Automatic annotation (TrEMBL):
Stated name of the protein: NADH dehydrogenase [ubiquinone] 1 alpha subcomplex subunit 12
Keyword Membrane found: yes
Species of provenance: Dunaliella salina
Residue ranges that the Swiss-Prot or TrEMBL entry lists as coiled coil: none
Free-text function comment from the UniProt entry: Accessory subunit of the mitochondrial membrane respiratory chain NADH dehydrogenase (Complex I), that is believed not to be involved in catalysis. Complex I functions in the transfer of electrons from NADH to the respiratory chain. The immediate electron acceptor for the enzyme is believed to be ubiquinone.
Length: 157
């Protein structure tokens, strides 16, 4: 693959319109942070769009790639839409099964059974303000009056 073809695939994979937009993106704060983190830079610039074939995209915007010529557990990978605030919880169950070799079916060529009680997937809220806060935690605005011990009183007859 020539350098021109590689750059064309990298530009296409990173959703930038042209080489000028790609250069502007690389010189932005996001591009500098990406180069500082070698793993993200490797996935976005080297391995991501050029080392494998594009398999599909989920409803979050994550892109999935596969290359069967690589070593066993490195054949499938994901390029997260949000480069720096990514979470593996944004991989939907049907793609999770494919990327972890549980099955060989992608949601594009297989209709997965969805139980009637299944909720739509969403990114985990752990560590954010939207996380579950039980009664009595220090982050809940409504405080409880905690009593360490209360003796049982038999009912009056």
């Amino acid at each position: 693959m020539s350098l021109r073809q590689h750059l064309a695939k990298v530009i296409e994979g990173n959703e930038v319109k042209d080489l000028k937009g790609f250069a502007k993106w690389m010189l932005s704060w996001e591009g500098v942070k990406m180069l500082g983190d070698g793993n993200i830079g490797f996935i976005k610039l080297i391995k991501g769009p050029t080392a494998g074939t594009y398999v599909g995209q989920d409803h979050y915007g994550n892109k999935y790639y596969e290359n069967n010529n690589l070593q066993y557990d490195r054949k499938r990978w994901v390029m997260y839409k949000d480069t720096f605030d990514y979470s593996s919880s944004t991989i939907p169950p049907e793609w999770h099964g494919w990327i972890n070799y549980i099955n060989d079916y992608t949601p594009h060529n297989h209709n997965f059974y969805k139980p009637h009680y299944m909720l739509p997937t969403e990114k985990t809220k752990t560590g954010t303000d939207g996380a579950y806060q039980p009664k009595g935690t220090w982050t809940t605005p409504k405080k409880r009056n905690w009593v360490k011990y209360s003796a049982w009183q038999p009912p009056q007859a």
